[in-house]
């Protein structure tokens, strides 16, 4: 699908006028990002409305002490509206996005999207539902981080990311995504290796057939 | 102010029609809760739009393992719309509210509030901003729980709750509000008492003048 078809399909439920729909189509962009690329340039960067066409992104929050935690992930077909300009003016929290592999996204700039959101209640309510979904997911992820042991969190993470028993992640990436420290993650991975539950390779982890939560 | 004046003041920015405003006024209720009371009856309970007139509430999430964490607090003047029916249909997460002291709230039932939200984009966007604010606050609170030591979290909590150096909370309440276990909280409080930073009383904690973060 080209961007015109994508926008028409995506925005159909919101009952935009023909002129507004055409404007959204004209202003929509398809952007590509490489694995590891951060999708923001500065504090005021904002993508407006975002739809993941391929690949996956993770949303993470950075704290003053340079620690970070992944609060949710976006996969193909997921929409997102989370940037400061689009939702809340809030200097205290900055949600960042990182491409977890090659990523293609469709975006409608905030200058176009914001007025639409203020004009069409169905669109405003769609964004509200999206935000509620991300809110729920964030609380689930953070509560797992709070209430599970690091060992449990790493196991659950590896199981969720394994593709044919292989997880292509560095210790640093795992630490960032589950909100822990690299040293602690490495220590537990080595313990799991000693127990025969996995093998550590270069940039990847090979789970044994016995590996389970 | 009576409920009519409260609703008119609160809903003025949303440009409701006279009929819709009158309907909201007719349906609004002022409710009172006692300290410790939980503001929900069952999974489907929902207060629609809620404005805190006096007292304070805490919103917390309960997990399968019976652990809970406070994700934000609501004080006088704070509005909230967070129940399942009003925002997201999501069985995985249930946000509960507890009265932290004597509480008086103004509510507009979801049956009235939802159609208004779908009709008036300004109202939909107001709810979106509210949710974004709670989202941010939740992430701040949970990240503090994740990234601070328990000692730091307890100190910071006591400082935020102290009234004339007195914190009227049980160890259990503190544990619940910061997402920890009662035993762990009691242990640290005893350590702080041994250091002369506070005195433990019945249902209250008296901070010494030297107490600081």
From TrEMBL, chains A, B:
InterPro entries according to UniProt: cNMP-bd_dom, cNMP-bd_dom_sf, Env_Response_Regulators, HTH_CRP, RmlC-like_jellyroll, WH-like_DNA-bd_sf, WH_DNA-bd_sf
CDD domains: CAP_ED, HTH_CRP
Domain HTH crp-type: 148-211
PANTHER family in the record: CRP FAMILY TRANSCRIPTIONAL REGULATORY PROTEIN, REGULATORY PROTEIN YEIL
GO molecular function, one term: DNA binding
Entry protein name: Transcriptional regulator, Crp/Fnr family
Keyword annotations from UniProtKB, A to Z: DNA-binding, Transcription, Transcription regulation
Keyword Transcription regulation: yes
Example of a GO cellular component annotation carried by this entry: cytosol
């Amino acid at each position: 699908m080209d961007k015109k078809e994508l926008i028409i399909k995506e925005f159909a439920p919101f009952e935009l006028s023909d002129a507004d729909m055409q404007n959204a189509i004209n202003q929509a962009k398809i952007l590509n990002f490489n694995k590891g690329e951060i999708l923001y340039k500065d504090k005021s960067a904002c993508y407006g409305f975002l739809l993941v066409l391929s690949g996956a992104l993770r949303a993470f929050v950075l704290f003053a002490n340079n620690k970070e935690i992944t609060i949710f992930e976006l996969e193909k077909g997921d929409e997102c509206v989370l940037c400061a300009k689009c939702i809340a003016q809030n200097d205290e929290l900055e949600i960042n996005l990182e491409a977890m592999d090659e990523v293609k996204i469709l975006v409608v700039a905030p200058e176009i999207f914001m007025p639409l959101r203020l004009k069409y209640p169905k669109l405003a309510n769609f964004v509200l539902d999206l935000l509620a979904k991300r809110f729920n997911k964030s609380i689930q992820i953070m509560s797992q981080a709070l209430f599970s042991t690091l060992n449990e969190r790493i196991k659950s993470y590896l199981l969720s990311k394994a593709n044919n028993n292989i997880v292509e992640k560095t210790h640093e990436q795992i630490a960032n995504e589950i909100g822990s420290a690299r040293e602690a993650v490495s220590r537990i991975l080595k313990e799991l290796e000693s127990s025969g539950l996995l093998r550590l390779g270069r940039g990847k982890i090979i789970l044994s057939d016995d590996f389970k939560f």
